[in-house]
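dude i think i finally got it to work??
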Amino acid sequence: MPTSLYRNRTSPERFPLRPFAGRSFVRTLGMPGDSARVRFRRFLLTCALCLLAAGPLHGEVRWNASFTENYRSEADGADVAFQVQSPPEVEGVELYPLVVVLNGGPRVSPADKFPFFQVRPSLNKIWGYRTLSTYDAMQVIAFMKQNYPIDPNRVYLVGSSAGGSGAMHLASCFPDEFAAVLPLIAAGNNYPLVNFTNLPVAFHHGDRDWVSSVCNVRVQTQRLQALGCPTLLQEYAGAGHSVPGSHEPLMAWLFAQRRNPAPRSLRHECESPSLGRSYWLQIQEFENPHQRASVEAQIASDVATIRPRNITAFSLALHLLPDVKSIRIGDQQLPARENYRLDAGRWQIADVPQKRSTRPYEAGGAANLYQGEPLLIVYGTGGDHPAQFQAAAQKLAAYGGPIHTPMPRRFAVVADDALTRDQQARCNLILLGTPQENRITAALLPRLPVSLKGQVLAAGDRLPVRLEDQVMGLLHPHPDHPQRLVYVLAPFTDEAGLTLFGENPQTFLPGSDGFDRVSQPDLVVQDLQHRIARQMQFGKDWRWLDLPGSNRPIPSRFADRVPLAHACMALMLGQSHVDFALWWGPADKGMWGVDFNPLLAFDPDSYTLADFRTQHRLCETMLGSVSGAELKEIWNRWGSTQELLSHPQIALETLNDDALYRLHLPMDLYIKLGQRQKNLGDPKPGPAFAAEELIPRIFEQKEPR
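look at this
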């Protein structure tokens, strides 16, 4: 298979068979003059070397057993354990299905009726199973394919609750890895639905689930089915946060699905080229790295028609397309080759992409630190508070993203005066401390595309911003090792501020949760309450983007999120013409330690329209109905306490108990409304809106007097 198609992917190629050591195979068998006994010993040695080189053979599998396996993680250089359950060996069966369970899963174990391997990845503590949890799951799959008799066309992804939504996210990133997805009591959102065009999904959900309301699953099912994706929803009357009854029918459906490695048509959307592979097509390069790229492709006879959007280079796996002789892109028809590139508005056959001296830019900010590459956290020993920086580094080392619970393992931590040249060459670095506190930051910052004079920062053509009582974050390739990244995380605060920063340093790494990669800043200046003063992004050449509006400050009322929430709700109401739009209020406390409100707060003294233009988030919404009596209950419970906001403002005295009121709300708000132990009536997909649609409502309205 062409290496150009599979670069940046977690695949079995990352676990090559171990080569033979020492002499060649022929020399190992024997040399002239050797006796028969010596030749026989050499033959036995050769057999042993073959076994070592090939890894576990099918005859060595521990059948009908539960045990622990390990893969070697590049992220921290340590072995990562995961659980394996193997089936009884079945005569005549050479390859077996693999079921990957992210959390919970069906109550069916490998047995004669369903002989399959089951694995449970261990790094499952990151919300949404993103960033390092994604890497972990894909490494487990690659290890099992490499070392066990796994059928590559029968790899299945299942999970319950958070594991169900995680399964949908993971499958949307790597749709060509799986034969089917079985999410139980969850569906999640904020992932590209078109990627399920060739990937069957079967949701199972109780209609009295008040932990994860069935409304979300109903809406996601409607969206998937409207796109033509093979999707089923089985609801269980009266069931809560579990799937009752026997799970054997679920497994029977699952094992009836087989992956087609070369479908005749495909659709794919992604936020980075590293997630750009779909079966026989790999997106290699974006035109704009801060917009999602997508492609539709169909094969008819011997012609593949490609419809790319925001793509300047792609590759084809021609070994999967033996009948394709040419491709059609717009008004062009070109011979079938592996690589294509857009040049001056016309597509050309291209050479195999060569590795660049500097790593290619990918949007995502701190998310790029948690993709499985070696990561080292370096704390400063200068200044007056080295112990506090060391403690912050140790806390940061326990997270593979900013939220949820710490991981069961840690990244390595080292002091700035102990960092070696070899470590800088091998690892991405998080540098904790200002230039006065971290000597590595002091050495590298003058060589990065920013200017720091005292506590005043300048970048690109933007006006300088003061750093007093602020935390600066900056991502850039290491000047001496440009295939590696450095992330400068510098709190310019007093001792009390440093203590506050050290309580949750992981929350000052925007993008590290893996959500909304195209919007994440490469430079961010924020205060200890996460009010943002500056957001900037690089283009794909690692040069600062010059976005219009740097002379237009954000109105002062947007210093908190409430006015921005009202702008969102007014936009939603104009889209759907319902009775009320709802949003999280300032007193909302989140759920499970997660703040689901995606809105940011801004520092009006520094934040401008140019900063806001870095936001490309697409807010997904749903519609539903409640009676007047239910709406009164909702408002008395959450509106009166400012945990919910509405537009227009709900006046209880105007509501008719028996009337139906249509609501428009962001997708994740269904979790909060489910706590009242009632579902929304007739839930439907709502229109999504982009951040840029809010610009007229924020920057083009006069400040109230």
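The CA atoms of residues 581 and 664 lie 5 Å apart.
im so relieved honestly
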